[in-house]
C2H2-type domain-containing protein (Ohessyouella blattaphilus), 67 residues
Amino acid sequence: MPPIITYRCGVCKREYPGHEEAVRCEESHLAAVSVVVKNHGIHEYPYSVAVTFSNGETREYVADHMR
Ligand SMILES: [Zn+2]
């Protein structure tokens, strides 16, 4: 019985039948270049941060419990 070979993206864990597809998936994911705290509130951890990615774009993320 022949084995079924798949390739898994090391970042998102999605599986592909071809090695090149998995490599393309890995290379499509952006790296976080910097994180800046936007709002801290009274808690130990900040409730929102701005993340700048390797493509130069910045996105703001808010903690789940503050939405
Ligand atoms: Zn991926």
Notes: Residues 31-67 form one domain. Residues 19-28 form the longest helix (10 residues).
